[in-house]
Amino acid sequence: MALKKKPVTGMKDILPREMEIRDYVIGQIKKTYASFGFTSIETPCVEHIENLNSKSGGENEKLIFKILKRGEKLRIQDAKKEADLVDGGLRYDLTVPLCRYYSNNAAELPSPFKALQMGSVWRADRPQRGRYRQFMQCDIDILGEPSNLAEIELITATTTLLGKLDFSRFTIRINDRRILKAMAASCGFPEESWDDVFITLDKMDKIGEEGVAEDLMSQGFTKESVDRYMELFHIASPDTDGVRALRDRLTGFLDPQYADGLVQIMESVDAVKRADFRIVFDPTLVRGMSYYTGPIFEIAMDEYGGSVGGGGRYDGMIEKFIGQSVPACGFSIGFERIIMLLLERNFQVPESPRKKAYLLDKRLSPEQIREAVADAMKERESGIDVNVLVMKKNKKFQKQQLEEEGYMEIVEVFA
Q1: Exposed, middle or buried by CB within 10 Å (0-12, 13-18, 19+), for 411?
Q2: Which conformational region is residue 287 in: left (phi greater than 0), alpha (psi within -120 to 50 degrees), or beta?
Q3: Which of 55, 97, 277, 292 is the most exposed place for a label (fewest CB within 10 A)?
């Protein structure tokens, strides 16, 4: 039987054209985030299954690629439950590994610690446009900083990066999980039902306000609670005035400093931004991860039609590892979606090195070949990319392919 030449479902091969853009974007990421004080780290792609199943990853915990025990530890015939077979899994994001990393190495790290992490993650998800089962994630996180400076730095750094990649007129949507909870409490929703309420609210952009109201009613919530809930979204304009309006309406349910903190973040980011974007208050923003404890944010781009990144504060997560609370906040860009949009735009990598090709006649003597290779080496030392190739019979097609790859200077070397 012939071997399969296509990648496994949800995975993809990366061709040279895309790889050139990926390498360029990775370079811009490292350069931009380093200018904000972020330090590169790396964690293993395999994590303990207990960490991945710690109720911190939301729906992603249902999408884990699990790994069987190895060698003598794998006793399939004696297994009675999954834990008898599985002890690890491929990471589904970079946040859980970061928290384990910090917990294990905190004594050797500065405080606050500003981390940049890029790497592949895996989710057994249904593939679709811009979504794969293996994909690159790019996260920046600030650990040990309790103030709103963390959110301001994360949003400013990320938007600066997107501006350098020629993205403009995008939107940063921002909310706070504590505002979400105060809204639900003020409308009489029982605390044990808040997660269900938020899951329904998260559908607002798909089913609209009427759809959300009907869904909540179908779950058995009173019309009075649902009507009061919907009214709150009407008074919350997408600016700092909307935050203040909710702060005043939620007196007794929301600590005013949380709303004031959100206003500080929005005003500070808007005052120092170096890219063309809006930052808007969106009280319908939920974000799926259950570990978020404070401000949350997403990047929305009209040309994609959805989110291309997001993050927020997750102050309670490291405590699960060390029993001590550590402030934590992070922002992740959708690397694969950014690359997809750049490819669709026919993005050209700027300031690429001069590229030159030598086409060598097959009849060249060993001495002539050595001389051509020596010439190429000298040009490489001067900063030119030089590709040395044997001249093909269909020279016209060969030169056309080289030009498509950016080799605009082609030298033919004959015997």
Answers
A1: middle
A2: left
A3: 55
80-83 CB contacts, 8 Å cutoff, 24+ apart: 83/49
Interatomic CA distance for residues 44 and 97, integer angstroms? 8
Using the CB atoms, write b or e for 98-116: b if 16+ within 10 Å. Answer: bbbbbbeebeebeebbbbb
**Averaged over 318-338, what is the pLDDT?**
95
Average pLDDT (97-110) is: 96
Task: Decide if 49 contacts 85 (C-beta within 8 A).
Answer: no
Token digits for 340? 């997809």
H helical segments located in 81-141:
95-105
Strands in 148-261 per DSSP E: 170-176
The pLDDT of residue 79: 67
Q: What percent of the chain shows pLDDT beyond 90?
A: 83
105 Cα distance to chain centroid: 24
- HSE of 376 in the Cβ direction (CA atoms, 13 Å)? 22
> Listing from the earlier edge strand, what are the strands of the sheet with 39-41?
39-41, 113-122, 134-143, 328-333, 306-313, 295-301, 170-176, 277-281
Contacts of range 305-311, beta carbons closer than 8 Å, 24 or more positions apart: 307/334, 308/170, 308/333, 308/334, 308/337, 308/338, 308/341, 309/158, 309/333, 309/334, 311/139, 311/154
